[in-house]
Amino acid sequence: MNTMQETSFGQDVLNVERVGDVWTFTLGRPDKLNALNADIVDALLHAVTRADAEKAKVMVFRGAGKGFCAGFDLSGFEAQSEGDLVLRFVRIEMLLQAVAATRAMTIALAHGKVFGAGVDLVAVCKRRIAAPETTFRMPGLKFGLVLGTRRFGEIVGKEAARETLENVSSFDAERATQMGFLSQILPQEAWQEVVDQASSTAALLTDQARSDLYRVLGPVHEDADLAALTRSAARFGIKDRLRSYLAK
């Protein structure tokens, strides 16, 4: 077993563990509910790219502490320019696209509260597992951000996605399973069995065959997704919209 600490700007933000062809990425900001600041997004993007280059067969995403991921980290946004904020959102979309494009089988293991871009990270994975107490919420449209919307709609259907996103509704693991968003609800002590099974399943196909399968079943909309996200984030007044959202 190889364990590596991915660091960025002097902060430990991501734990990377490699066991054979299985790479596990554990978000490491538990004091911030693993909210996605620039450091953790860059570390994840670097780690996913590296794992893909080294022909990982399985990639596992999970969070340390009480929850999987609280979404975009809004702390300190007042000190950033609107351009800086737009770039941060673009980098998250680039991360999601990197996960979507990998030939590896991807697994999200979610627990606790999962918000915004954290839900998008779950959505982009091929297998989506959550502990029974997990809750999800996607508030991005409250501040005019279109991130991960198409992916969510492709999983749960356009009508269910529209209703959930329009009403900024929270939904629990049971509802997520009913919508088809989650593959399974399992307690955390059973998660290793899922990873072991995924490793066995991934070995049944060559890397090329798995890559071809994923490409055929998951049509690529990279340019359209990036354009939609950038257009929504770059619209004048993103900081005002964030202020209004936080004030409510």
UniProtKB/TrEMBL annotation:
GO terms for molecular function: catalytic activity. InterPro entries: ClpP/crotonase-like_dom_sf, Enoyl-CoA_hydra/iso. One of its GO terms (biological process) is fatty acid beta-oxidation. SUPFAM superfamilies: ClpP/crotonase (SSF52096). Pfam families: ECH_1. This is Enoyl-CoA hydratase/carnithine racemase. It comes from Pseudorhodoferax soli.
